[in-house]
Structure formats: structure tokens, C-alpha cells
Amino acid sequence: MSTVTVIGSGAVGMAVAAELALAGHKITLYELPEFRQNIEPVMKSGGITLTRYGETSFTKLHKATTDIAEAVKGAPIIIIGTVSLAHQTIAELAAPYLENGQTIILFAAQLGSIEFKNVIKKKRPGLDVKIVETLSAPYGARREDVTKAEVVIRAPMRNLGLAAIPTKYTEQVMKEIKEFYPDTFFPASNVAEVGLCNPNPLIHPTPVLLMTAMIESGNNYIYRFFTPSVLKVLKAAFEERNAILKKLGLKDLYPYENLEKLVADPGIKQLTGPSNMQHRFITEDCPMGMVALTSFGDLVGVPTPVCKSVITLFSTIVGRDFFQEGRNLKRLGLAGLSLDQLKKFLIEG
């Protein structure tokens, strides 16, 4: 049995906490105080009702809390299952209470590991913790009603890249995470390979933009309308990302062919997407994922006109400057680096 803290009481955090608790691990679930209403049902019930693979069961947690010190002190492994927008806030809150030797795993972080690492270096320069990010969460999950301590795991994920910053910790973390997910993750080259290959920043904002009028007219079954023209734009966005990966000497962990298989699946066509332009597909994946991607393009000298067009148009639609507020080079602490300096940073942190 291991002691694990899970941060975030959204669908992913709840699913991770419930499944690991069901497997016999000692689980603490943490939520930011401003979102206390999301974790209160877990506090009241003492656990989570998990539905997976057609079976439903209730599993007790060790603790549910909004006290960050209580959550992270003494936890050998901390799993962050929040949206990318929360990574910097969580790092700043947790930094005073983190301890040497802890492992911090950010699921589907979109280069959030770099942001987290920079906060720790600034606030706790002598602290030795392993900071890791993964290509995706280990499963798709849904929490339909935040007034209930219930979550549903819909689909397990496989073959997901994982990397630490610095990279010297990747193999060690692989050994640690196999206790919870024996065949889900594999070691990737570095966090840029993992973060840039997260498909969400490409397959979420781009089609939503092209279907804006349809969505605002009340039809949000977007996965039914991946028409040839939509796929043509998506393929161009993938090609921009792949050119960045090539310049960095990194592998493509989520090729365009995976998307073609996804949209051909009849089951995906039953899923709904955003019903308005304030959905996280836009307000998270565009500034945190797509801006990070285009920023890497700027740094290594790869043009990204398609992705930048998506960001520009969504900034206009939403009324915010995603280039300025998003995960840009300055926010990532990479502004002014040369290509060789960037490669060194990704290895050494």
C-alpha cells in the first residue's frame, strides 16, 4: 500500500483517487479552497462512488481536504489531475510544504511541468523533488454532478508518454508509477516531447473554431462533423507541430493517423463538445496548450500560421489576449534561449 495525494476534484482527480483507493492505497484528495463546493460531497460521504467497466462501488478515502499543507506533507507521491490553468497556483501554494524526495506527477500537463519546475526553483531553490508530466490522464472520466461524490471511468488509455524534468528521474518515476498503472505509460525523451504531443491543443480548439456558428446555434455534437475540410486544417496544424518536434529531435507520440482512427469510431460521434465559447476546450487548451506550441515554434524558428490563426480568432471571440496570458516563452522561463540552450534545459531542468 502506498500513500498518495491527488490534487483536483474534477473528473480526472476523482477517478484517480477512487481507483487507487479501491486498489488499497492510502489516498488524500485535495481541492483549492475556492472550489470547496466540488469536494464537499466527498468530505461528507468519506469517499467516492466509482463506476467503471459496468460495475459501481463505493470506496473510502483516507482524507479529503482544502488544506494544502495537510495534503502534501508526508505524501511520497502527489498526482495533479487539474486543468492546466491551475498548475502555477498549485505550485505556489504547495511549494512551502513540499519535501525532498517527493514525486509530483502532472497528468496531461501541456508543458505544465516546466511551469511547476520554475515555481519550485524560485521559491525553494534547494528542494529536490521529481517533477513529471504525462501525455494524457490514464483514462477518460466524467463527473456529471458536482453535488455528488460520484465519478465514471469511460475508457482506459494506453501507450502514454511520461517524462521528468530533469530527465535523469524519468526511469525512477516509471518504476514508481507501475505500482498504480502497470502498462499505461512508457518513458519519453523529455517533457517537451510529452507536452507538445498532447493532442488536446490541436483536436479541441481547431474544430470548435470551425464549428462556432453551429455550436452557438445549439448543435454541439462536434465529433459528427469532422468533415474533409476540418480534417485538412487539423492535418496542417499537426504538420506545424511535427516540424517543431523534428527541429528538437523528438518523436511524434500522437500522429495524425490516431486522430483519423478516433473520428472514424462510431462511439465518438455520440459525445458532445462545448455548448458555448467559454468551454475549457477554448479557455484552457488554446492559451495553455496551443500558445505553448506556437511559442516553441517561435523559439526554434518554425512558423505556425495555422495554429496562430486559431489563437488569434479565439482571442477575438472570447475577448482576451491568449498570446499574452497563455503559456508563452516568458511564462515558461524560456525567452531568449537558443536551440542548444533549450535542449540542455529540457535535459537538466
Features of the shown structure:
eight-stranded mixed β-sheet, 12 strands, Rossmann fold, globular, N-(1-d-carboxylethyl)-l-norvaline Dehydrogenase, domain 2, 46% helix, 17% strand, alpha/beta, 349 residues, single chain, 18 helices
List the helices and strands and how they pair.
Blueprint: E1 3-7, H1 11-22, E2 26-30, H2 36-45, E3 47-52, E4 55-60, E5 63-65, H3 68-72, E6 77-80, H4 87-94, E7 103-106, H5 112-123, E8 130-134, E9 139-142, E10 150-156, E11 160-165, H6 170-177, E12 185-187, H7 191-197, H8 200-203, H9 205-210, H10 212-216, H11 228-248, H12 256-264, H13 280-283, H14 285-300, H15 305-318, H16 322-325, H17 329-332, H18 339-348
Parallel strand pairs: 1-2, 1-6, 2-5, 3-10, 6-7, 7-8, 11-12
Antiparallel strand pairs: 3-4, 8-11, 9-10
Helix pairs in contact: 4-5, 11-14, 14-15
How does this structure look, described?
The chain is of the alpha/beta class. It is 46% helix and 17% strand. The protein folds into 2 domains: 3-196, NAD(P)-binding Rossmann-like Domain (Rossmann fold, 3-Layer(aba) Sandwich), CATH 3.40.50.720; 199-337, N-(1-d-carboxylethyl)-l-norvaline Dehydrogenase, domain 2, CATH 1.10.1040.10. It contains 18 helices and 12 strands. Helix 4 (87-94) links the parallel strand 6 and strand 7. The longest helix has 21 residues, at 228-248. The two termini are 31 Å apart.
